[in-house]
Specification:
globular; about 70% helix
C-alpha cells in the first residue's frame, strides 16, 4: 500500500507542476522553444506578407481577434498562451503590439473597424514584438513548408 501512495503523490505533484506551468506566462525565449506555437506565429506573419495568395488571405480573414492571434492559427488555449507571453519582465505580447501600433488601435476601434491592415500595420509590429528577423520568414525551407 505504501508504494501506491507514493506513486499517487508523484502523480499529484506532477499535476500541480503542470497546472502551475499552464497558468504562468511564458517568456519570449520559451515561446520560441515551443516549436509548434512558434511555427504558427511565423505562419501568421507569412500570411500577412502574402495576402495575394488565396489561402493566406482566407486564413487571415477568418481571424476573430484584433491582434489576429486566434483561430484558424491558434486554438483558444494556444492564443491565450501567445497573448500572455512576456516580451520583457512585465509587458505581454498583446501590450507590446498595442504599443507598437500606437494610437492607431484606439482610432480604429472608435470607428468600429478595429482590425489593422495585416501587411502594412501588423507585420512591422509582429516582427518587432516577437523579435523576428525578416530572413526567418523568408527561409526557403519554411516557405516551402507553408506553401504546401
Amino acid at each position: 500500500m505504501a508504494k501506491s501512495k507514493g506513486k499517487n503523490k508523484v502523480k499529484n505533484d506532477q499535476k500541480t507542476e503542470s497546472t502551475a506551468a499552464a497558468t504562468s506566462p511564458l517568456t519570449l525565449s520559451e515561446l520560441r522553444q515551443n516549436g509548434g506555437l512558434w511555427y504558427k506565429v511565423l505562419v501568421l506573419i507569412y500570411d500577412f506578407q502574402h495576402q495575394k495568395d488565396a489561402v493566406s488571405k482566407r486564413r487571415t480573414d477568418a481571424t476573430v481577434d484584433s491582434t489576429y492571434i486566434s483561430a484558424p492559427y491558434f486554438t483558444p488555449e494556444e492564443a491565450e498562451v501567445v497573448k500572455t507571453t512576456l516580451v520583457d519582465d512585465s509587458v505581454t505580447i498583446v501590450e507590446a503590439i498595442h504599443t507598437a501600433l500606437g494610437s492607431f488601435t484606439d482610432k480604429r476601434e472608435a470607428s468600429g473597424d478595429y482590425r489593422p491592415c495585416g501587411p502594412h500595420d501588423m507585420v512591422p509590429a509582429f516582427l518587432s514584438c516577437f523579435g523576428i528577423d525578416k530572413a526567418e520568414i523568408a527561409d526557403e525551407r519554411f516557405v516551402s513548408r507553408v506553401a504546401r
